[in-house]
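cron nightly-structures :: item 1 of 1
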Amino acid sequence: MKIKSQRDFWSGLMFVVVGVVFAVGATNYSMGVSARPGPGYFPLMLSVIMAILGAIVLFKSLTIETEGGDPIGHIAWKPLIIIVLAIVVFGALLPRLGMVITIPILIVITSFAGDEFGWKGVIANAVVLTFSSWVIFILGLKLTIPMWPWFMAS
């Protein structure tokens, strides 16, 4: 069988693999029933839907002809590495420095992944996202995320 769209083939395959892996991982949690779903119910259903959609895209890539084979192109390594690094730094710093300092650090690091960089936009994003995160996660969801650095927490 000939791959008629490289882009759809690899993205469909990625969705199938991620969906199957997360479906297997979700089976470690209690499923419950439809009327009273357990903690594994939503991740299982979501990962099954992801795998099905991936299979549809994968099937499409093998059956529907695209002009030029729809090649993938080069991998943008710089943004990929910067975003992964930013997530690692965020995970490492959040318990120590709190949300007020860690989210702006995350925004500054991730802003270097793009081609356009301006301090006004970065600072505005940092302020808006820090405030929004506080409203959503601390006030709304009542999560126990540290807001301030460990030495300032009471």
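cron nightly-structures :: done
The first helix runs from residue 6 to 26.
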